[in-house]
Amino acid sequence: MSPYAKNLKEYRKEKNEIQEEDFKKLIEFLLTTLKSIHKKNIIHRDIKPENILVDKDGKFVLADFGIAHYENDDFLIDNKTKKGERLANIGYSAPEQIINNHEVTQTADIYSMAQIMYWFIFENVSRGTGGEKIAKKYNWKDANVYDMIIDKCLRNNPTERFQSVEEISQFYKNGKKKKEIKIIDPFEDMFEFHEAIVSVVPEFFNSVYNITDKGVMSELFNSIFSCKYNESLCFNTGIGNNSISSIIKLENDDFLMEERQLNIRKVWGFLNDSLYDDILLLEIDNSSPYKIEGKEYYHVAVIKNEDGKEDIVPYEKTLSGYIRYNDKVHKISDLTVQERKIRNDYKVIVIAPSHNCTIIPENDKFLEKLQCINELQQEDIRELKRKIYKNKSKEVLRRL
Hints:
By secondary structure, this protein is an alpha+beta fold. The chain has twelve helices and 20 strands.
């Protein structure tokens, strides 16, 4: 009989209420285990509740290294996996494991660790920014520290996460001592965001206004994303949200938001002195697919040549981690490759700092309703502002 009576998923089902000691025990196990395997240059890449076993004494152990990536010659080469392979349980996997837009590193395990932490409390995974907070659910001594760790570990861009388990451990240690943790004023980011917008389109202030000129849109996005923020900006559709670091104009006048290609019809703005309910909303039309050798593709990779020219290929050709290009086989990570994905699934996307009223979950239903409108009118934007104003984040309310 196996010494492990259950896995973490089954263990969690038996608990009606989570005590802080239970949670701390899980965190310390995750930190210790990841530190150990990462020191051996192993990336697990499939951390999920089913792969954490629990013995009769309640001790945890990480199992199933079947898809782990080993970078040490001491381990069997059969366990090496290629970049670009679609692995693991999507709910707990880092974005780069799913969309192959960044190299999969130890930060992917760090992302999965934070999803485990979030799931252990709320019994579901985080779907992006603006999720539930432990400090709101439990009056635990270190609840705010846990929330800050989870928030940073779940950043969409791996370079914005903690880069090692040691960094997390140090932050956790300092946090428990209530030292070296900067209490971020959400109005700092909201002010930067506000100024970046009105410095390009002052007509957005105190009135509902929209722009259709793609050049002005590009100038606006450059202004917004060139600012330095305490926390990442976010996008929200009312259906899903996440952090965002750039929106760039493409050669066909579409825009690229991370890897998502958008045909932006209008950018709506409605800003005022309150800052926390500023609205910057993208109204989206469908993008046309790429035609390659007579076929239509909605998911492509753009390869940039040394001479500055670009070649567009079906994205599926990059999934092995290698591609035959200019009569030679190249490693994808050695090339400059831009992923473009056309989904045509949203008509409305808002951009804002994480504590803005348009980002918090309580206001998702109002944004989701806008997805059903074929062409927005000024009154739709005014009505959105009236509705979101009623729900504010806890951090904003503290400072009003």
